[in-house]
Amino acid sequence: MTDKQLDIPQHIAIIMDGNGRWARQRGLDRSQGHAAGVDTVRCITSECVRLGVKYLTLYTFSTENWNRPEAEISALMGLVLTSLEDEIFMKNNVRFRVIGDLHRLPDDVQQKLRETEEHTAANDAMTMVVALSYSSRWEITQAVRDIVQEVHDMQEDPKQMLNNLRNGGIRAEDITEDYISQHLQTAFMPDPDLLIRTGGEVRISNYLLWQIAYSELYFCDTYWPDFNEEDLHKAIASYQQRQRRYGMTGEQVTHNDDKLS
Prior knowledge:
With 261 residues, the protein is an alpha/beta fold. Helix content is 47%, strand content 14%. It has helices spanning 3-6, 19-25, 30-51, 70-83, 88-91, 107-119, 136-156, 158-166, 177-182, 229-240, 250-260; strands at residues 11-15, 55-62, 94-99, 126-134, 194-197, 216-219. It has a six-stranded parallel beta sheet, with helices on both faces. Strand 3 (94-99), helix 6 and strand 4 (126-134) form a beta-alpha-beta unit. Helix 4 (70-83) packs parallel to helix 6 (107-119) and helix 7 (136-156) packs across helix 8 (158-166). The protein starts with a helix and ends with a helix. Mean pLDDT is 89; it is low at 1-5.
């Protein structure tokens, strides 16, 4: 096996776009496109496990999607419930996690999400993360609110405030990138190595804006229901051809790679 074959991204994030257009081309209802997209999720999840990917994060429903027609939202929520019945998590030893503004979801969906997280908590081949009722601006706004709330709680609790003063309190210089990252919904996992968007659009659509600062981006025209293992392999092959420099020169990266080899 070559070095390139070993260079599998540990975290792949996907914007699963094109379900509605796929359905319209076939004279189908948009909900049928979303149902076909669930089949693709099963296929890509199994292949990611086989390849050794450790985290797969799927943009399933954005906060902006609440503006869609009520019938489509209802169909999508129903799909969330039925797709979580799938045994793919246990069959592939996949842990399930969810991020997003879950309080906006129907009660039965919230309950099913919690149950699936608990049921799969011991699985360790890969973690599938579903971004549901999620947007990056919402997430960052919520992180700032949580930090402010921490400071407020310290001020309200005399013992906590005294301990805080003894420890120097939360100073402006304490608010680092790591500190903010710890307050994001994704604090439990590394940032994506590769972001894939299907469906032909070339934009990020308010998805993991903080986390993809140094991710490799891959856009393809294939609608999500048609995206298959071969398409995934093409995206990974493109990733493997790139040099991730993180602000360094190409020569520096090559030199560091040589020292590690």
